[in-house]
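Record pair follows.
FIRST:
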Amino acid sequence: METLRERKKQRTREALLRTALELFITQGYERTTVDDIADAVDVSQRTFFRYFAGKEEAALALEGMTVAHFLEAVRERPSHEAPMEALRQAVLEGWDTLNDVIEAVVPVELYLRMHKVIESTPALLAAHLRRSVEIEEAIALILAEREGVDMDTDPRPRLAVAVFGGVMRLTERQWSTGGDFSLDAMRTLTISYLEQVGPALSESWRTR
């Protein structure tokens, strides 16, 4: 059972995270300092660093939560599903259950608005892309284990994930620059782009 001290630490971490995201959104990531975040929560800078290595870790913390949720969803997909179908179903399941993952910490709207901040902040976008490479390798490993293949000799897990990752990256970019920033809009766009992967790769694009 969680102790009172553990609950207090969790509440402090969540307060720091929520406040950091609110400040990043309202006044900008670059203009927000660690002191701004700590002062708003009425804790010391030292306390902030007990929970986060820096601003970047706080800014990308929710992304880490959703990634962990997605990886678990991929692991749990039925073994009869083809790799790309398993990825597709896992990501759609992730959007359907995002509220369960995020709402315990911050409102989903805050999470979605933070996506725009990441896309428009060079330092955060670079960090996000670096993490994406690590995440894609983790997904490829899961697929290789599911299919019983060796990634060192079989390129298919990494190829499948490269295609999937490219689609998700395009989806994020199009959604963040569009006019509808709702969760439904992101989910609809994700479905639309994933459904076009097969035709885009295997069919002619020319119109007669």
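SECOND:
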Amino acid sequence: MTGSFTLAYVPGVTPGKWAGVWQERLPETPLTLLQVTIAEAAGKVRSGEADAALLRLPGDREDLHAIPLYTETTVVVFPKDHEFAAADELSLEDLAGQVLWQPLDDPLGWDEIPGQAPVERPETTADAIQIVAAGVGVLVVPQSLARLHHRKDLKHVPLTDAPQSRVALSFPIRDENPELVEHMIGIVRGRSVNSTRGPAPEQTKQKQAPRQQQRRGPAPAQKKQPAKRAKPRRGR
């Protein structure tokens, strides 16, 4: 199969495993990975700059399908010398007296923000991490973002009753999906290479041929001809 496919993905999502499967199954179809911000992801798909996107839910889903893939653990990020340092997990109630930064690219769907609201909102999660590292307030994010922005002077623990972020594969709503989109859906859903959603690669067909030959059974053994006896020599 020829052509190409562009897959956008937001920070914290790691598409490497799926990209590897794509390369194995569709080696003649280049896959381009395009990292985008949370705010850009849906728009890239609608504009056609990306064929599909790995983005976070809840979020912008206008004119887009979204197949949820997994749900992330939500964590609290704070300095290592913070009063929370000895905690293994926290709850929203524990944040009541804390300044909680909510960046503009926050992927969590809050009904009500716990803790004390800051004077202004940082533009990005990376900006909020810098503020927390300076010893001002705490930050609540999906665990993958805490790992992405890991610092030795910060720690994070699960926040048990906080909203969670789901990672989903999103693509345009159509009556019928293009074949390459169906291939990507199959890969992220863990379908086997022999799934009915897509043709089996030629290599698979070639590997089946020797097995069919083996079913015929081994070639019949050839009968050995009896050895001829040598005639005795007569004396002179």
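COMMENT: The longest strand covers residues 64-71.
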